[in-house]
Design a protein that fits this description.
single chain
Length: 86
Amino acid sequence: MCASVAKVPLERHLRQLSLDLLGRPPTIEEYRAYQAKGSISEDDIQQMMGSEEFYARMRGYHRALLRSNISASITNQNDSRLSGTA
C-alpha cells in the first residue's frame, strides 16, 4: 500500500502541472487566478490538456520519439529524409 501524500501547496502544484502539460512555467496572471480560486480542479487540468500549447508539446514529444527511432527502423544508404510541418 502506498503512503499518503502530504498536500502540495497550490503554487507548486500549478507550476508542476504547467511545466508537465504546457512546457512552461505559469504566468503571474495564472498564479493570481488560481490563488483567488483556491484550488486546481479536474476541469482546470482538462482545460490545460485541451489547449494548443498541450497539443504542440505532445506533437514535439512524439516527433522526437519518431526521429530518434527511424534510423534504427529503416535500412537505407543514408539517403532518406524526414520532413513535415510544424
